[in-house]
Amino acid sequence: MIKSVKYILAGTLFGIIMSKSEAISWYRIQEMFRFQSFHMFGIMGTAVITGVIAVWLMKKLKSRDVEGNPISFTDKEKSWRRYLFGGTIFGLGWALTGACPGPVFVLLGQGYLVMIVVIIGSLLGTFVYGLLRHRLPH
Amino acid sequence: MLELIKQPWPWYTSGLAISFIMVILIFFGKSFGFSSNLRTMCSILGAGKWVSFFNFDWKAERWNLLFLIGSVIGGFISANWLQSDVPLNLSEATIQDLQKLNIQFDGNIVPSQLFNWDFLSTGKGLLIFLGGGFLIGFGTRYAGGCTSGHAISGLSNLQIPSLIAVIGFFIGGLVMTHLIFPLLF
To answer: Which domain of life is it from (chain A) (predicted)?
Structure first.
């Protein structure tokens, strides 16, 4: 029970952070892709810089997780095609809807029920990827 | 305290808070990546019957679905109890660029002229919401992650593949914003 609750709480915190940071804002995403404000770059920059330090520290201190298991980081599979092609396709959708997967659900919670259609679209997209996976360059 | 939280957060607070979420999930023995939930949802809906990619033990991914449910709750809490009266501080240049595309800045988090069922029931509206969702779902799975999995988790672990993915995110976003938007709106 506690095990489940902690993930819901972490998600709730994430939803609040996404809302208050305005990272879920369609307008902010447009502003970012037009390079007209530092806001989104500041958010991502701070997150990455502090994230790099945190990950480095966890490796250095050989940290363990709450269950006592050693924390390990898996390297992403070496390639460039899937990241460049897949990333570009996602970027098109990100700018078009003004939301990435997390914010799609946060906006739904904010009461923008039209996001249900974006979710249906993204499930279809994921399914079609699974269908065509073997024919795509990775 | 509540008044402070209600104000729009400066970028450094937000950035720090996001990496804090990543750190919590690592300490829970998991990793921060939102889009894999879409694969899990396809699997729950029975996609594994047709495509082996969805034939996996989704129960191991239950924690991430709980995180997703939490994010919906977080959005609800923010919209109902943590709203500030200050309109979004969007740059003047963006407001003017959008006006040229006939999209008005209304001070909300998203333009109400687009995010409603009337717009969605037009051909263009359906193309944007359903098509945009499709690109998100297809692209994130193809790239093996989205903003959280690559831009935050991957870059924090200094992964070159994640850097390539983030460059892709921007190529796509720039093409959509500067080349396709003028044709759409």
So the answer is: Bacteria
